[in-house]
Amino acid sequence: MTYPNWLSQRSHLSGGRMALSFQEQQWTFAEMNEIALEYAGKLTALGVAKESRVAILARSNPEFVFVMYGCMHVGCEMVMLNERLAPPELAYQIEDSEAEFVLVDDELKEKVKDYNPILFSSIREAVPAEFEIQHEWEKGRTISIMYTSGTTGNPKGVRQTAENHFSSAVSSALNIGISPDDVWLCSVPLFHISGFSILMRSLIYGMGVRLYEKFDAERSAKEICSGTVTHMSMVGVMLERILRNVEEASLAASPRFKAILAGGGPIPVAYIKRAEQCGIPVLQTYGMTETSSQTTTLQSADAERKIGSSGKPLFLYQVKIDGTAKAGEKGEILIHGPQVTPGYIGRFSGRKVQEEGWLHTGDVGYLDEEGFLFVVDRRSDLIVSGGENIYPAEIEKVLLAHPAVREAGVCGVPDEEWGEVPVAFVVLNESAEADELLAYCREQIASYKVPKRLSFADALPRNASNKLLRRELKLWN
Amino acid sequence: MTYPNWLSQRSHLSGGRMALSFQEQQWTFAEMNEIALEYAGKLTALGVAKESRVAILARSNPEFVFVMYGCMHVGCEMVMLNERLAPPELAYQIEDSEAEFVLVDDELKEKVKDYNPILFSSIREAVPAEFEIQHEWEKGRTISIMYTSGTTGNPKGVRQTAENHFSSAVSSALNIGISPDDVWLCSVPLFHISGFSILMRSLIYGMGVRLYEKFDAERSAKEICSGTVTHMSMVGVMLERILRNVEEASLAASPRFKAILAGGGPIPVAYIKRAEQCGIPVLQTYGMTETSSQTTTLQSADAERKIGSSGKPLFLYQVKIDGTAKAGEKGEILIHGPQVTPGYIGRFSGRKVQEEGWLHTGDVGYLDEEGFLFVVDRRSDLIVSGGENIYPAEIEKVLLAHPAVREAGVCGVPDEEWGEVPVAFVVLNESAEADELLAYCREQIASYKVPKRLSFADALPRNASNKLLRRELKLWN
């Protein structure tokens, strides 16, 4: 089973449409395809071939896209390196993936200098060689490999196939709709599935991508209000900053703007309501690298009724809770569908990723009577205290509901009496005392769940996709 | 490889959305699913089981939909009988398909009385039995079987799988977009792929269907102008009647209205322009029963530049011309993609439908330099005259361009001197003489292509989907 080459087909079918825009420049699908073919030739000249495994390290800019699309034409497997990682972390991924080539944006070359990298400037200057274009793409072909941020242990390299990406794009379209004039604002990293999946949707839908090198709340707010973009992906913390910009300018989203997709944990209802006031529908999503982006989404309309939920699965997907039959019972979240990775590479290649077709996420959650998913916690963050299970997210949610709190993070610390106890770190919006916040918690959750200590911070540790890193919090104690 | 049961999943994900509306009644997806489950139980009580082959004969009304959705829950294969056929034609299909059950709308029971049919009223009255719901549908599962209208020879029963229908729906969405509030007006027969594919899109997209028992130009025009519907499928001859209604009422399409999909041959540019004036984008399509609906479409914007073209393939599909490499060369049209039937049933089950993954359509056409498909003719209608190939559609197109001509049909008749010669039948808009029309032809096409005789008629012979039946024209001579 194959797909027609997405780049050629998209160029053939809607070559005149805008594919990518960056700052003041833009490229149509026909232009993108021409450039991608040229890059494919240049990469071939440098030795890259079909099925080569190629690690790429770059910032979110057009050249990164050209290189990736060139690789896709050649038919190689791309290991997407996270530019925020330290050299030893990059070394681990390059070695684990056994990448034959390391392609690097000149600015970042120091980070991978031990691996004989090919600079983007060298690719640019290469004279294209003949290559055999892949007219048909096998569904099982590995397009990308991403190392999971992995809250514990060694990162695992996740294979994402053409079918994974295609199913993900189609399922999203069946959920929120698509229109030929959609433009998706991408300020999440291209090397993460959040950003990479926007490129895949672009090719599959024939949709424009408005690319930012990094998140910019003010510019994003302006584009949302002027209607130059129709969709945006982000994590909760970015949302608040955008809303503030929209509100301060006394503006509202353009009627052309359709939705913000927000991942990385539940969004406070207060934000959703503020977004609504601004005319911005917010869809909360749950997904991971192993599911090539979102698996469930919560519609704006359900946000208040289903606080803390990640919604329902997309059309092609199924979600169930391991070992439970009743609504409300907590357990490991299992996922089934064509978006689920067939497996890992490198040292984890022997680890089975699916059991009887179901991905074991390691996350804990439940389904309510209506089938809405609630992710209670990442299993690895579970705090066990005096035999009771404590889920940090539950405590954070309570703290976040306090008007003085902007961000909250909770983790477990060892305790002689209880084994483990929760402690909290908070970033404030306005002045408040720790006692006041703890008293506030005490009103709403069982006493064993109330943090034993609460400290203030200027910021919380987050990874490149802005997910809270609770294991880092542990080091703060 | 499986899909989640489309009926259950759609009910789960958007149960509150409108699924079907008919006259003054309407049903949500949750209601439709409840009814379908009840019908599945009733059918089970009557002996229908998973993989039973069930022939269904009915008019386009909600009960027909209930029966079909019930069959889909049970997991049986539906042979879609055309209610306009005569009893011997129906007998052929029932026998060829070896249908175990014949389900019939009470009004039509006489037509299949020799086959021990189960009346819809008996299904309605049955007491539902327990049945095993199909939670997962195999991609290769046969959902529907349709006999091709086949311009010559015995009709062939075409298998349409879940994957065929899914790919068709997704490819259409990737072409024209989808939105959760779309409503597709269906006045083409449900037993044909044109109508049945609207139901499949409804389930896959979560889209409403506005069902008409039969085509009604006046009501259709009203709904298009009031915005109660967003899409409509039709053949060219219906388009003109709708446009007349819109024009006479000095109205225009609602901004909510998105597109008319028009199959069954090229639409005169004059119609496309009139439609544009009315705010109605018209997409001309090319497809067949073997491709589970459209394979190529021509956008409104290209209609004038590419007169007579059927456009470009949808995203997942490929089209090529057998044995040719150069643009403009005529030959048999070949189609590749997941929408292509895996094969026929009954007496044609041994006939290979694909050769190395390509469907041989029997239609003749060419691709221009930009890759636009032009269907020159159905191969079986080819007229060979003095060694020259004559394509009836080419002559019809010329006649249709004359302001006095509303419809035109051309076929070959035996001729002592030339083997075969073309003759024409014309339905007039305003008075005109045959000599005048033939002189008009002579100005535009080679003399051997000019019809040897031109007669006037009140209407031309068309099948249930309004396709011109040239083989019937032959009998008029």
Structure explained in plain terms:
The structure is a homodimer. Chain A has about 475 residues and is of the alpha/beta class. The first copy, chain A, folds into three domains: about 1-140, Rossmann fold (3-Layer(aba) Sandwich); about 165-380, Rossmann fold (3-Layer(aba) Sandwich), CATH 3.40.50; about 380-475, ANL, C-terminal domain (GMP Synthetase, Chain A, domain 3, 2-Layer Sandwich). In chain A, helix 7 links the parallel strand 11 (about 185) and strand 12. In chain A, helix 1 runs antiparallel to helix 2, helix 6 crosses helix 7 (about 195-205) and helix 8 crosses helix 9 (about 235-250). In chain A, about 50% of the residues are buried. The model of chain A has no long low-confidence stretch (mean pLDDT about 90). The interface of A and B includes residues 10, 205 and 315 of A. Chains A, B: Converts 2-succinylbenzoate (OSB) to 2-succinylbenzoyl-CoA (OSB-CoA). Chains A, B: One of its GO terms (molecular function) is o-succinylbenzoate-CoA ligase activity. Chains A, B: Belongs to the ATP-dependent AMP-binding enzyme family. MenE subfamily.
